[in-house]
Every structure is written in structure tokens, then in C-alpha cells.
Amino acid sequence: MLQGTATMAETNHRILVVDDDPLNRDMLFQRLSRQGYVVALAEDGDRALEMIEAERYDLVLLDIRMPGMSGLEVLERVRATLASDELPVMSTGGSASRSSTSASPS
After folding, report:
1. CATH number, domain at 64?
2. Which has the closest alpha carbon to 70: 103, 27, 99?
3. Domain for residue 100, yes or no?
């Protein structure tokens, strides 16, 4: 299981970060990499699906509010082929700076 206190020598867990906001992607990349995780980045749902098909990941951090294919649609497509025990997915809420036209507030 993933552990936040692991050092680089202790883990080779692969995490895919999917977020359309480059600041969010960079922040997560920096924080997770410092903890020793192998981090891959996708800027949208289409790219995320391509990467999931091509590589094995231990966890996906998925922005739910993205233009084009939403995170929910990505999740539906992933679940059509991979169960949650095969690929855990954690949703992220997105940036507070997003336009009010991108999604309704929860």
C-alpha cells in the first residue's frame, strides 16, 4: 500500500496525476516525487486514458472538473476495464480559481 513517509529507496509506486491546471499538476508532481513516488502527468482525460492503457499505475489522482472529457467520464471508462482493486482512483476537486462556467458548485 502507498505510504506517505516512504523514501525514494523504499518505493517505486507509480502515480498518475490527471489535471488540466498546470499549477496543480506541478505541485502534486513536486510533493509526490519528494516522497519517492514515480509520478506521471496527464493534462486531460484523453491523455490519461492513453497512459492508463499503456502503463501500469498504482494510483490515479483525477481532477473531476476538466474541460472536454470530465473526470467522471474518465472514471467510467477506466471502470469498464479495471476494477477499483486493480487501479484505485482518488478524485480531486480542482482549483478554486476556475471559472464558474466550468462546473456547478457542489
Report:
1. 3.40.50.2300
2. 103
3. no
* Helix axes 45-54 and 71-79, enclosed angle (nearest 10): 30
Structural domain boundaries, residue 82: 14-92
pLDDT tens track for 38-85: 999 999 999 999 999 999 999 999 999 999 999 999 999 999 999 999
Cβ-based neighbour number of residue 78 at 10 Å: 21
Distance of CA 20 to the CA centre of its chain: 10
Residue type, 59: L
Which sign, positive or negative, has the C-alpha torsion 53, 57, 59, 62? negative
Global pTM reads 0.79
Q: Which of 12, 77, 80, 86 is nearest to 44 (CA)?
A: 77
Mean pLDDT for all residues in the chain? 84
> Does 98 reside within a domain?
no
User: Parallel, antiparallel, or unpaired: how do β-strands 59-63 and 14-18 relate?
Assistant: parallel
